[in-house]
TrEMBL record:
Residue numbers spanned by region Disordered: 1-54, 67-99
Keywords: ATP-binding, Kinase, Nucleotide-binding, Repeat, Serine/threonine-protein kinase, Transferase
Composition bias, Basic and acidic residues: 24-35
Keyword presence, ATP-binding: yes
Family annotation (Pfam families): Pkinase (PF00069)
PROSITE patterns noted in UniProt: PROTEIN_KINASE_ATP, PROTEIN_KINASE_DOM, PROTEIN_KINASE_ST
CDD domains named in the record: STKc_CAMK (cd05117)
Protein name as catalogued: Protein kinase domain-containing protein
SMART domains: S_TKc
Bias (Low complexity) ranges: 72-89
Species lineage: Eukaryota, Viridiplantae, Streptophyta, Embryophyta, Tracheophyta
Gene Ontology MF annotations: ATP binding; protein serine/threonine kinase activity
InterPro entries cross-referenced by the UniProt entry: CDPK_Ser/Thr_kinases, EF-hand-dom_pair, Kinase-like_dom_sf, Prot_kinase_dom, Protein_kinase_ATP_BS, Ser/Thr_kinase_AS
């Protein structure tokens, strides 16, 4: 592979796909993309187009933009170069700063004020924006006197929101210590969102600091011109540079070492109720140039707090790494896991899983295209590696592994001595289990009996983290202790009480490991597996032997079977058991509630309930396993 660095944008000279026919295809693709860019919105996909090859070679060696490149802070503050260029197909080095994974344009527009096409700079003569900016409260309450405490050194990196320099502590106990200072110019904060971002970045760093794989935060300062975030100096450069310097691919083992650290810190953030929202190789730094140097997550500028059941709707992040549900404006911590999947894919094969020339093209790929695992080097890779990446890149966030689950995946779990962190998902699932009918609990218990050793690995680790009694049981007290032990003060204030209240039923009873498995398994995730049909059939057989029984009408009317909880008050129904001749009564009841007569309720009843004995059919069993989320219950109710 040739070297492209230091040259102007002549990607073709290094392009292994630059044969004339390929070039023509590329041009056609670009034309289509440009047309799409002009008109189509993200969700307006017409027909899936044959994607231009998503392969995205990395060049080696990279003249990595040196950590200590000589660039003066003043030159630095004049704005980044790549912000004004379209995302190229090939990585060219040195990158004009900021990094090539550009933020979604809307993100920059909302945060930095108006953004011209392909441009993140703030228009210098935009009077209205200046007036609005003048009204913003840019006092953060951070320490003053930055200049008297630190001697600022050279620039070591830059992004859209700030630039980072080395600095030396001038006085006090740490005199002489080298630190990193991220300088965020207040002049760039032209919107309330931008000031809020800076405030939150510091708040989150302050709350999370202490984890081995997260940049250590020391303090925040401000003066009239800037906010200064003082952090540990990571001298090993960005993960992106290492990927490039290795020519794009990591061996599976080397990739595991990186993944382990990324998953660890992200699982930690998620447990603390923080979603990063901008995970990409540029936002992970090595502490030293050493091969085995520790990796640290940086840049919490787009991060936010999220409660266990909350969905965020702000479209945020960098295009290549953004999860489909972010584009659909309803997401939570799973979105970070998607970005980790993109990083894993790049580490292992050196190309981007979702690629197009334009932002809207990338979005369409993210929403519709499946990443290729057919081209080299994938065929020679272990099946576990492929499965690992696929389960991180599951388009349905409910089917996607969590960061803690990913650490238990067979591909990675035997790599070194992995310490699996507590998973917030477990509490979410137990909460839903505790609110379920006895029939659903029995169904879940049957399903839990079909779990394989691999699936049980994660549940065993999670149960152990809750420190069961010597009788092998947990109750609310165990959960409380485990949470207190594993979460930061910030999280204690924000979420622990909510979680404990939602699991209140465990105050008066215990849960053994078998029940824990039934409560904490995710039906959605199992459904995403190839062997789901087997799991479900096997579980149904077990349920038939021990658990299936004639359905009580209240249950049918309840959320779990028909999804009619809100429009079908169970108290109105007194018949104990559904038999064939009672269908009519149920149908009348449903019609009395003003539901459309065209709705084939009888079909639902026919398919979900066995007429011979009024017990659940296989389909009814699967529906019961899922329960019905309030969202689908609502849409079901609307449809009727
Ligand atoms: N603690 C640190 N030690 C060394 N270099 C750092 C440190 N923090 C940041 N940098 C460098 O500065 C760059 C910009 O920092 P950061 O990503 O926080 O800025 P940003 O403006 O928020 O970027 P973005 O455009 O990605 O949002 C990083 O990519 C990295 O190269
Ligand atoms: Ca960054
Ligand atoms: Ca940032």
């Amino acid at each position: 592979m040739g070297l492209c660095h230091g040259k102007p944008a002549s990607a073709e000279s290094c392009d292994p796909f630059s044969s004339p026919s390929h070039k023509k295809k590329e041009e056609e693709a670009t034309k289509k993309e440009t047309e799409a860019e002009a008109g189509a919105t993200v969700t307006e996909e017409k027909a899936p187009r044959p994607w231009a090859s998503p392969f995205f070679p990395f060049y080696s060696p990279s003249p990595a933009h040196s950590l200590f490149a000589k660039r003066s802070p003043s030159a630095a503050s004049q704005g980044g170069g790549s912000a004004t260029s379209t995302p190229g197909r090939f990585f060219k080095r040195p990158f004009p700063p900021p990094s090539p994974a550009k933020h979604i344009r809307a993100v920059l527009a909302r945060r930095l004020g108006s953004v011209k096409p392909n441009e993140a700079a703030i228009p210098a003569d935009d009077r209205e924006e200046r007036r609005a900016a003048a009204g913003l409260d840019k006092n953060f309450g951070f320490s003053k006197g930055f200049a008297s405490k630190y001697e600022i050194g050279e620039e070591v990196g830059r992004g859209h929101f700030g630039y980072t320099c080395t600095a030396k502590v001038k006085k006090g106990e740490s005199k002489g210590q080298q630190v990193a200072v991220k300088v965020i110019p207040k002049a760039k904060m032209t919107t309330a969102i931008a000031t809020e971002d800076a405030r939150r970045e510091v708040k989150i760093l302050r709350a999370l600091t202490g984890h081995n794989n997260l940049v250590h935060f020391y303090d925040a300062y401000e003066d009239n011109d800037n906010v200064y975030i003082i952090m540990e100096l990571c001298e090993g450069g960005e993960l992106l540079d290492r990927i490039l310097s290795r020519g794009g691919t990591y061996s599976e083992n080397d990739a595991k070492a990186v993944m382990l650290q990324i998953l660890n810190v992200v699982a930690f953030c998620h447990l603390q109720g923080v979603v990063h929202r901008d995970l990409k190789p540029e936002n992970f730094l090595f502490t030293s140039k050493d091969e085995n140097s520790q990796l640290k997550a940086i840049d919490f500028g787009l991060s936010d707090f999220v409660k266990p059941d909350e969905r965020l709707n702000d479209i945020v992040g960098s295009a290549y790494y953004v999860a489909p549900e972010v584009l659909h404006r309803s997401y939570s911590t799973e979105a970070d896991v998607w970005s980790i999947g993109v990083i894993a894919y790049i580490l292992l094969c050196g190309s981007r899983p979702f690629w197009a020339r334009t932002e809207s093209g990338i979005f369409r790929a993210v929403l519709k295209a499946d990443p290729s695992f057919a081209e080299p080097p994938w065929p020679s890779m272990s099946p576990e590696a492929k499965d690992f990446v696929k389960r991180l890149l599951s388009k349905d966030p409910r089917r996607r592994m969590t960061a803690a689950q990913a650490l238990c995946h067979p591909w990675i779990r035997n790599y070194k001595d992995i310490k699996v962190p507590l998973d917030i998902l477990v509490f979410r699932l137990i909460k839903s289990y505790l609110r379920s009918s006895s029939l659903r609990k029995a169904a879940l218990r049957a399903l839990s009996k079909t779990l394989t050793v691999d699936e049980l690995f994660y549940l065993k680790r999670q149960f152990a983290l809750l420190e069961p009694t010597k009788h092998g049981c947990i109750n609310l007290e165990n959960i409380k202790m485990a949470l207190m032990k594993n979460v930061t003060d910030q999280m204690k204030e924000l979420h622990v009480q909510d979680i404990l209240v939602s699991l209140g039923a465990l105050q008066y009873r215990r849960m053994d490991f078998d029940e824990f498995c039934a409560a904490s398994l995710s039906v959605h995730q199992l459904e995403g597996l190839d062997r789901w049909e087997q799991h479900a059939r096997c579980a149904y057989e077990l349920f038939e032997k021990d658990g299936n029984r004639a359905i009580v009408i209240e249950e049918l009317a309840s959320l779990e079977v028909l999804g009619l909880q809100n429009c079908f008050p169970s108290s109105a129904i007194s018949l104990p058991i559904l038999a064939q001749d009672q269908h009519g009564i149920l149908l009348t009841r449903i019609r009395e509630l003003g539901l459309s007569p065209s709705v084939p309720v009888h079909v639902v009843l026919r398919d979900w309930i066995r007429h011979t004995d009024g017990k659940l059919s296989f389909l009814g069993f699967v529906k019961l396993l899922h329960g019905v989320s309030s969202r689908s219950a609502q849409s079901l109710a609307k449809a009727r």
